[in-house]
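Reply to dn_fold:

You asked what the input looked like. This is it:
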Amino acid sequence: MTDTMPRPPFDPELQGFLDRLRARGPFVLTREMLPAMRALDVSEAELDDRLRQRGLERRSVRVPVDDGTTIALAVIQRIGRTGTAPAFFTIHGGGMMFGHHLGNLESYDDWLLTHDVVLLSIDYRLAPEHPDPVPVEDCYAGLVWTADHAEELGIDPARIVLVGQSAGGGLAAGTALLARDRGGPVVHAQVLVSPMLDDSDSTTSTHQIDGIGVADRAMTRFGWDAYLGDHRDGEVSVHAAPARATDLRGMPPTYLDCGSAEVFRDETVAFATRLWAAGVDAELHVWPGAFHGFTSMVPHAVVSRRAVAALADWTTRLLAGSLPEDPES
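and this is what came back:
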């Protein structure tokens, strides 16, 4: 990043976190670091104990994918839940390269306990060992399996919500596009939090957040290189990089948010604009001064609490059936 390129300032409450991060020295992601970044910070037994303390339980099922392999799908719900519930199908972040499908489950407690949904989290295979189209096809296979096993799971197949943050947001949007293009399961809605959508490295925010903040331009380029592999500079599908989609008609109602001082800002705003142009109901929030992942890294900041509350409000309206309906449905 050049010193002369202007960028939005960071929120004062968030700046302290970035100062402490910077004091540790520069962070340069390498492939050798990925195994450690894919591991849970607790054992699964300890994780399950924490869930039980919050009144939740987890089980794991195996989902068949394209080549006879199976991948894990975690099913998490309130202990003793009965009846038919909406399903929130979540896709974890991590630049397509790291993260864990059982990480950060605490962030879904409001949905699990307030709205009594069934949460599903897919253990999609990661790049660079499994480049495109494997991750998004894994997510789509999980969505299809979920819809096909709705009765067994105790969910309403007409109320499956795709949820993703960062790389998971890009995969969620790609999965929704696959479902539309293949005539697959109907996606009730999608939640895209700071989604990784655009492989072009051409937006203003990509160049502004270079060597600063969290998840900067260098990390984003590293992720796209790993994900797209040998067709990085060739033909890239809209399912891999949803920002390339020129026609978003038929996409589900969408909640999008990002920070004004993060690398994915411009692609998030552009995707929302394209959804509106296609007649899709979309709610967009750009949080002033926020960096990538701010709600989980500095949860007590005012801007973080505002962001969490806005998504909670949208979720309540979605599940109450009070969001605008698709005029073509």
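The beta strands are 56-64, 70-78, 85-91, 118-122, 155-165, 189-193, 254-259, 282-287.
Hope that clears it up.
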